[in-house]
Amino acid sequence: MAKRMIIMLAAFFLLVAALAGFKFLQVKAAMAMGAKFAPPPAAVTSSIAKAQTWQPVLSVVGSMRAVNGVLVSTDLAGIVAQISFESGREVKKGDLLVKLDTRQEDAQLHSAQARRELARVSLDRERDLIAKNAVAQSDYDSAQSEFRQADAAVEEAQALIARKTIVAPFDGLAGIRQVDLGQYLNVGSTIAPLQSIDPIYVEFGIPQQDIDQVAAGKKLRVRADGIEGHEFEGEITAIDSKVDEATRNVTVQGTVQNPDHLLRPGMYVNVDVLLPEQQGVVAIPATAINYAPYGDSVFIVKDADPAPDGTRGKEVVQQFVKLGASRGDQVAILSGVKPGDEVVTSGVFKLRSHVPVMINNSVQPDENPNPNPPDT
Fold first, then answer.
1. What pLDDT score does 96 carry?
2. 3-state class (DSSP) for residue 314
3. What pLDDT sits at residue 310?
4. Can you give the pTM of this predicted structure?
5. Is 366 or 355 the better-scoring residue by pLDDT?
6. In the CATH hierarchy, which fold is given to the domain comprising 102-163?
7. Nearest residue to 179 via CA among 71, 264, 104
8. Residue 38: partners with Cβ closer than 8 Å, 6 or more residues away
9. What is the Cα–Cα distance from 100 to 83, expressed in whole angstroms?
10. Is the pLDDT at 372 greater than 70, yes or no?
11. Buried b (16+ CB within 10 A) or exposed e, 300-331
């Protein structure tokens, strides 16, 4: 009985040993196959980093203001007798806009002119007589005083008529008129807005930490929503003498050429202050940046070690970088990438160092320094 038990136990252990050996051989074979297995390369796009010349800009939001802008009004009451301008049309300095009824003032002027003419005749007569010593000097002085008073009365009547004749104070674009023929106007009643808009001012605020980057004479680019395909050129003409205590911004004024009158006072616009050009800026697409809390990085394409069959593929190496300014779809790299480096531009989220890659640049991400995305 004991002998049979020993034989059975020995057979069992032999069976277990045989199974374990077989399993070990299977695992070893699988490990050998796994060692030979290589994952397929990741499909990515790439771009060659190049040294570029950048035109840095300081972008802000501003508003347009007329060089000269007033609400034309009357300083005397009266009835509108004549309207000589059309709404929305250009007028020149001195052009008649509105004339109030001046019939009473015209009569006063004629009366004053008649008195002045009589005073002139009397003064001429007294001058002849004083030359002959036929009258006293006091009579001549009295005649001269009467003529001067009559002449002043004529000038007063003419000034009164001129105040009821409203003319354009400067060249500009007339707005919508606010008066009608026969309408009675009180003192200060608005006739129409008048704006001088070529050239036109743009005003914007610059944070105090950027004040040293702006100065009179620096060039500007202005763009406005609703005026597609137009960029307006200008330059800084004035910088305010104080910083706003609430916003810590300083107001800057620029002058922009506006020959087609597309820009209007009150418009909000995007303003680019052109800063000095930078040479040798290494720029890559923004999609190439792998942003992370521990540091931003890119993946640089390198030649991989030769395979057993002699083929030589591509792999990537993660490189941490220091980022500079951005321009449209591009980002400047201050350190970490050199001109000529081939950088992965899409698919960076699935990469790590020494992962094999396959470059397919049939479709690449945008790299436009001045993109114009469509509205959505």
1. 94
2. strand
3. 57
4. 0.66
5. 355
6. Helix Hairpins (1.10.287)
7. 71
8. 356
9. 9
10. no
11. bbeebeeeeeeeeebbbebbebebbeebebbb
